[in-house]
Amino acid sequence: MTALTADQIARVKATAPVLAEHGVTITQHFYKRMFTHHPELKNVFNQAHQQSSSQPQALARAVYAYAANIDNLGALGSAVTHIAHKHASLNIRPEQYPIVGENLLAAISEVLGNAVDEPTLDAWRAAYAQLAEILIGAEKALYAQAAWSGFRPFVVFRRERESDEITSFYLKPSDGGPVCDFKPGQYISVKRFVKEIGVDQPRQYTLSDAPNGEWLRISVKRERPQDAPPGYVSNQIHEGIEVGGIVEVSAPMGEFTLDAAKTTPVVLISGGVGITPMVSMLTSLTAQNSTRKISFVHACRNGRTHAFGRWLDAIVAKHPNVSRAVFYENTHADDRPGTDFDFAGRLDFSRIADKTLHPDADYYLCGPVPFMRAQQEALIAAGVSKARVRTEIYGSGEIA
């Protein structure tokens, strides 16, 4: 790996406070600049997240973290792994890194002006080259293990409504080839052309079934067009893909995966569409006839938005080691307590401590960022070690 000099490290680290103050301005300018000079990259980056500024904010946080830890890159290990999996799912290639680097450095110079001198920019060039080398190496390893390269056409052979918001799509390779294996909790990217903005757009969807050798399944929440950001791709998938339709799919990626080798209790916690990786994990565990104590905790608004309810009931009835705790925040008159749901109101671990608070349990948590932040804080307050809580974040958010 390219080594930075002591002076370069000091200069990059010294810019961290400036990045904390001006980071979002820099990254917003960076994306605008890069898309002006390289409009083809709009097909790679989520344009809805550009509109909402969540992607510039996420990049600003990442750049700040890199600057602040430039002398201790080991602290960035999990972040690098997360980014590498996202990049590999989007088919990011080494030749794209110089484009990003050129425009990021130009954005720093153009936004900060005389506040940054040429030796500091040179230090950042070396630091970016180092970071690019780290990511390219990590992504190369992922590509070497991937089931296929780039995007592969799959045919939708079945679609099934799971709730008022979520529909499942069952996919098989259109070439008749074998379906790949994957780890429960991983995701794929689906690429669709979005006419409203005139570009291809990839979106990542968790595989919502256990590996079975026959198909892949994604379960897509339809975001409302008036939401910010609007659900360009989710609406296009719901409205435009029927049985027989073709979708372009990347190979499975993602580090939020079930540790199937353990025998300790498992607590699967989800909010809304965050249920999808938990369905894959629970299906995989029960298919293996695991004897681990498993608690499936889910929170949603009501029965109309509750996906996979009947599936969960069948699992619990068949496997005595599996328990459920379903919370409905705003129940409807036809929602049946004790049958459709177990608790009214928001998820509250004090009401299910006997099912969920075990000293040796592993906790898997997925859902909207505010939901995950609240549940992680509640678990830690109840005495659960943060190291035992694993999280998956959709989009460009972060927990803490």
UniProtKB/TrEMBL annotation:
Region Reductase, residue ranges: 148-400
Taxonomic superkingdom: Bacteria
Record-annotated Globin domain positions: 3-140
Residue numbers binding FAD: Y187
GO molecular function, one term: nitric oxide dioxygenase NAD(P)H activity
Role according to the record: Is involved in NO detoxification in an aerobic process, termed nitric oxide dioxygenase (NOD) reaction that utilizes O(2) and NAD(P)H to convert NO to nitrate, which protects the bacterium from various noxious nitrogen compounds. Therefore, plays a central role in the inducible response to nitrosative stress.
Protein's recorded name: Flavohemoprotein
Source organism of this protein record: Caballeronia udeis
